[in-house]
């Protein structure tokens, strides 16, 4: 047994079986690139202290990032550019919350969604990974409650969303293991959230640039709403930031298939969005929140193309009575007439979370020498300045 540190503090005792796995993990605590606001990208709304989903009290996020090998693709061996991200609604324990679900376009997967729709609750964490790892992650979540938390749960349908990292990663090799999932679940913490090439977002590409994990939050009407995205969708020519046609203005930094520039109009991809709030919302109201997510994506030029899996889940950390199995339970709820500020917050936070994912991500080379370049932030600033949209 040994201890590992995350941002200068112990994350607990990790079994020896996990040592090799943790050595594969990139420094997910590092955040070498400035976030979008620090670059001068203007956004509406007031963010929370961290401008992250963890501004919602109780929410914890953990990543396992796997980067291994280089060169030609050998299925089962690599190169590997993948991982898994865990979002716990009320910390690392079994405590169901009210939830709602919506698909802007259903070319994708989120396991457990039928019960979220039918029962209006989310039990356990929300997991996000690559397409070919959904099954392994789903099974590992059930094992985690039994083997690690020692919590007997008679029935659980884990919620696992996916986007495809096939451009950079040996997806068919299915490199995410049970131990990787356990690491993401155990390392989850509140506080700042690592973005970009981390966790499930490790091998993702968005709007023709390196994509991945991004987060943001808004405070409105005494409530906090936070968003976490795994961005792997969209085309470069449609990328719009702060109302500016950034994708058409940027020069260079095209994706490459080996030494050949990849088609700029590749529309297929996906995005998973998790929305958390401490506002006391009922399941049908949380579905209404999830239905506003596409508006934030559309601000950036997303169109929910035919081959894009745009799947969203929203949950509320209020109302501990959401876990009641029988009997009459008292709950609080926010009238529909007071929900518009939360709709606004959702749209604004989704927009910023995606841009945070883009500016945090770094250039990555994957299978067969494929390259996804980072969004050139110097050009981004110059373009925003040209259109008089760069914030002081």
Put the structure in a nutshell.
The protein is of the alpha+beta class and 392 residues long. It is 22% helix and 26% strand.
Q: Would you mind describing this structure in some detail?
A:
By secondary structure, the chain is of the alpha+beta class. It has one domain: L-amino peptidase D-ALA esterase/amidase, CATH 3.60.70.12. Helices cover 22% and strands 26% of the residues. It has nine helices and 19 strands. Strands 7-5-17-16-13-12 form a six-stranded mixed sheet. Helix 7 packs across helix 8. The relative contact order is 0.20. The N terminus is likely disordered.
Point out poorly predicted stretches.
1-23, 25-30
Domain count: the total is 1
Instruction: State the secondary-structure class.
Output: alpha+beta
Overall residue-averaged pLDDT value: 91
Annotated CATH topology: L-amino peptidase D-ALA esterase/amidase
Q: What's the gyration radius in Å?
A: 20 Å
How many strands, which pairing sense, and closed or not: the largest β-sheet? 6 strands, mixed
- State the CATH class: Alpha Beta
Strand percentage, roughly?
25-35%
Please write the string of helix (H) and strand (E) elements. Answer: EEHEEEEHEEHEHEEEEHEEEHHEHEEH
The CATH superfamily name is L-amino peptidase D-ALA esterase/amidase
The rough form would be described as globular
What percent of the residues sit in helical stretches (DSSP H or I)?
10-25%
